[in-house]
Amino acid sequence: MDKHQQGHKETLNQPQHHDRDKAHQHLAGSAHCTGCDAYFNAGRWSWQRTAGSQPEDTTCPACQRIAANDAAGNVVLSGAFLQAHREEILNLIRNTEEMERKEHALERLIGISEEDGKVMVGTTGIHLANRIGHALEAAYDGSVKYTYTENETHLDVTWERN
């Protein structure tokens, strides 16, 4: 077996990863999400309906993730500063989500929860998790760490400030 064949064999043996966010690519024409009122057209989800289109009713990838509680991004916040400025920080997270959602219909919060002095934020996309991490760092400093999965379909962000 030569180098080319070996490389080809290794490529073929790689497990295929299913990304639910790419599942919308099978849609022909336009679509309308009955859960959030987003529209799919020309390969992209947005909040605008294309004039003259007859969209097919469906559920967008973000609504699917929310229903399944299957976050593409997780942000974990901790530290004494968090406890002292909790509401202010949560408002920053919500405002960041609102700004991102206006431009990108699939980037939304799944939920915010608290456990053992930490705040956990789940997002439907990795870009919102990334943006929240950068917003926290810009506004409050602290230590931020970004960890992507190998295929970059999931992002874990940790932010801490004492």
How would you describe the overall organization of this protein?
This is NMD3 family protein. It comes from Pseudomonas oryzae. By secondary structure, this protein is α+β, with helices and mostly antiparallel strands. It has 2 domains: 31-59, no CATH class; 67-160. It is built from 5 helices and 9 strands; from the N terminus they run αββββαβααββαββ. It has a 5-stranded mixed sheet. Helix 4 (86-103) crosses helix 5. Mean pLDDT is 87; it is low at 8-18.
Defining key terms:
162 residues; alpha+beta; 2 domains; five-stranded mixed sheet; four-stranded mixed sheet; 5 helices; 27% strand
Shape: elongated
Q: Which structural class should the secondary elements be placed in?
A: alpha+beta
- Report the helical percentage: 25-40%
SSE run: HEEEEHEHHEEHEE
Strand content: 25-35%
- Give the overall pLDDT as a whole number: 87
- Unreliable stretches (pLDDT < 50, length at least 5) are 8-18
**What integer value in Å does the Rg equal?**
19 Å
Distance between the termini: 57 Å
Sheet with most strands: strand arrangement:
6-7-5-9-8
